[in-house]
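Response to reviewer comment R2.3. The reviewers asked that we include at least one raw input/output pair. We reproduce the pair for Spermidine/putrescine transport system substrate-binding protein here without editing.
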Amino acid sequence: MKRRNLLQSFSQSRRAFLRDTVSISAGIAAASMMPRGAWAAREREMNIYCWEGYNSDKVLDPFRKEFDCTVKAQGLISDPEAVNQLRAGDTKVWDVINLNNAWGRRQLYPENLIKPLDKAKFEPLWDMMIPEFKWPYHWAMSDDGNSLLGMIQRYGPSGMLVNTDKVSAATLADEGYDLMLQDDYKGKYAVLMYDDWVIMHVVIAAGFSPFREMTDDEIAKYEVVMRKLINNAAFLSDDMNAIALGMINGSIEGSFPGSVYSVSAARYDGNPNLRCVVPNKGPEEMGGKAGVCWMELTSLVNNPQLSPRAEDFIEYCFRPETAKNVSFAEGTYNPVGQMGDPKVMALFNTEELDAFQYDTLAADMAKCADFDIIPSYTKLHEIFSAAVREKA
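Raw output as returned:
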């Protein structure tokens, strides 16, 4: 069957999705205020707060049917915002949360916002994992190693995006972030507006690690780079698909930052010239690594009336067919840790593997530091926000 037209398949941005789901969130929040007796039937309902993909009907509909339950899902585009919502009381709203790897260990578990999984039940599932994620994988565990905080599934490298018909992947890898920061590259790239990811990559471009407290002098250098990046961009967008379309139609040549998932759907739709590229050299304090690799952790929210279906859902996601559906949900395609299982790998064809750049995946991951918390985030975000306001 012929694939959907690219413009149609890319018609909805993450931000648009969030607007569309405001009513869902409001309904869930209202339900959370019901008397305790009203929750007696929670075994037939579950609420998920997640990055795109897990909210796909391709993933959720089989679960709804098998477990005879209602599943409501809301997408997110900012880990820090999601953490703050849980802090503000949304632990009464959600049953499952899906965030990048560091939040569970660093903040969610220490602040009692998530609850551990049953190790005896879930540890055997780690036999499915690729070697890099074998048990006990530290980002899935508490600091003391005693508690399993969630399950790792999707992952990938993050660097920049480029149309290789305009700039070769080798050139971008060698020149790194400096290529897009050159004056003669003004107007040739977009900025993907996932706030913490922009900040991380700009800090790295300035020559530092974002995963430690920064000095005032370092922050001043970061500000210079951030303002130049924002001012020289052709446009700013939180819609990765709009950026991919810009690269396809020639209005831009690349994106800062960008991950494999940002162009995987476009690549699968017949645009293999779009690639995620991780620079070859980064700050010495990062071991020379210039990219950031992310791994999503799916956890149980510490909801006082937690749905019993929440644990079932996390286990369900590790079935080979579901793992493939999570990997290849509508609009974005990603590798999954369960590709260490031959039964999962057998579900992918060559074209699907090429969509998320499987040929260079291991090499790109090796050039990345693990995603972590940004200690100077508040100061760095203020500078980022000011630069965006000035451009507007």
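Residues 216-232 form the longest helix (17 residues). The two ends are 43 Å apart (CA to CA). Further pairs are available on request from the corresponding author.
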